[in-house]
Amino acid sequence: MTPQRKDAARNWEHILTVARELVDEGTPLQLNDVARRAGLGVGTVYRHFPTTEALLETVATPCLEALAGHGEQALTHDDPWQAFADYLTRLVEGQVTDAALVKVAATAEDVLTRTTELKAQILATGAKLLARARDAGTVRPDVRDDDLVPLMCGISYATYVHGANPADRLPTARRYLETLLRGLHA
Amino acid sequence: MTPQRKDAARNWEHILTVARELVDEGTPLQLNDVARRAGLGVGTVYRHFPTTEALLETVATPCLEALAGHGEQALTHDDPWQAFADYLTRLVEGQVTDAALVKVAATAEDVLTRTTELKAQILATGAKLLARARDAGTVRPDVRDDDLVPLMCGISYATYVHGANPADRLPTARRYLETLLRGLHA
DNA sequence: ACACATACGGATGAGCTATCCGTTTCGCGG
DNA sequence: CCGCGAAACGGATAGCTCATCCGTATGTGT
Fold it and tell me: Which residue ranges hold the DNA-binding region (chains A, B) (predicted)?
């Protein structure tokens, strides 16, 4: 899927690197910025990534893949409740750590099909873990599949609103999630 | 604080009305829009409300005042836990019902001092109710004052991410809050 | 009715997104 | 090594929104 010509491939990588930097700095990711910091023309950036969202989703893809991977692992755990709780913890930690992930998670319409696939997979895994925990009687029966993502987004948003420098966010997010999990537990 | 001249006062009201309409429609509140729909020049709108935030906060003020009022009432309730829970319910319901409130609540820096005052008051009431419930042993001791607003914002955000048309939001928000409250309860 | 203050309106500029097309670079076959 | 066609580059430019500024119009006290 990456371009054929060497320079194009190199630039693609470079743009992605710069974008990752900007996202990590907390900058709103403007394609002009990316172009300038990458030392490339605006046109080049736009050809590789037609919109800001496309770039953002591409930046977030590795993280989404990592989360999907963790989901696979979680399914192999013995304790249904612990597997469920661990998975949610991963999801929240990911979002709190990575600004790109938050935005991608909160968007209903994706521009990359890869993103849609990964989100679907993450959701499906969550649903399985939820079902397992519910069948084991460890999670309340009124929790629905499509509540999981919103709740995770809610927690990272709460953490964000709570303020504090990004460094201190993880403990806050864990605390909030812990509270939520107590509420979800049967 | 409203302008002196009659036409100015009339326009001020008119702008506010139009802004309220736009917010209720879910439109992102652009001052150019407001001007056009109010049949006024852009300059006029900008003179009355120097920034989008100023207008937004003014739109939200009545709701904030209502919430502050509810807080006063809640303090007179007998059951500490119920008073606390009811208050949080009010806060969430407000945010879910009113798009202006969400944005104002989530912003740390206010442009209107009135907004800051009201938010401080709402926060202070929440802190009192929390302290009372904690002293009664009905709420977990590790919940902090400055967690309340973030958590409420988190719930309304979760509700928003969950999607569904605005009409169906209230039940979802109540469900989420219920879960959270179970987690907060000692 | 006059004059001054106050307020209005829209032309204008600044910043960002996104496009388009002339120019440059790559890499393959001769 | 050279030339050529395709692929990629770069930046000028159009469209859009936010915000300002100032000449003009309107309200208000004398």
Answer: 30-49
